[in-house]
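Hey L., structure's done. Input below.
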Amino acid sequence: MSESTTAENTGHEAGAEAESEQQPGKAPKIIINSDLSDEQLMRILEAALFSVGQTLKVERLMDLFPYDKHPGKEAIRNALSALQAQYSEHTSLELKEVSSGFRFQVREEYSSWVARLFEERPARYSRATLETLALIAYRQPITRAEIEEVRGVSVSSQIIKTLIERDWIRVVGHRDVPGKPALYATTKGFLDYFNLKSLTELPPLAELRDIDAINAELDLQVPEIPAVPGAAEAEQADTEAETTNSEAADQEHEAGTDATTGSVEVLH
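Output:
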């Protein structure tokens, strides 16, 4: 066998060995070997975030680059930080990191101007709805009975339904007591809507302002989630009932709602 044939066979064997190391269905190992400048990397990320029109995690942004010429996760994060700094000056936009990733959005001080382009006015929420949402956010996971114990009045089924349909809360399990009442917690949709990266960014309870002031700010949120049919009328009726202390108890109340303690059975 000639030397050239031997070398060729050796090359084929090395290639086959390299291919065998890559398991089927598994992404190739990323090789940090990018020739992109910092400016080019920033502009690529900027273009991706603007074009997709939704939040993107760093892991998703990493898919923009080939595995053998990749800038690396740390470089992408540094570029995003640099973009945030650039947009923090002399622009009406900001690059915001929320629970589900990074996104470009209008600065709060310009939102009232942009809101004039939207025909549908944002929905206003009753005090009962906001108080219920606040209790779930700060005391999650929490049952409906525990919410009622704090508020001193029954919680309308329509309020819970509205918060679930707006993807602000969800059922995360059931309290392990008779009746197994549902446990509610906030969602990533809640964090994204209120510009929060995690629940640790919620203001301390001592710093919470008046509910009416919070509702006034919600009235300026852009873009707005479409109103749930009949929700406004139901919330208005709930508010009036609370004012007169004559709201009827919900006949479809979950069994065992008088139990406020017990272990948690989490849904899988």
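The first strand starts at residue 93 and ends at 98. The CA atoms of residues 175 and 264 lie 5 Å apart.

-- N.
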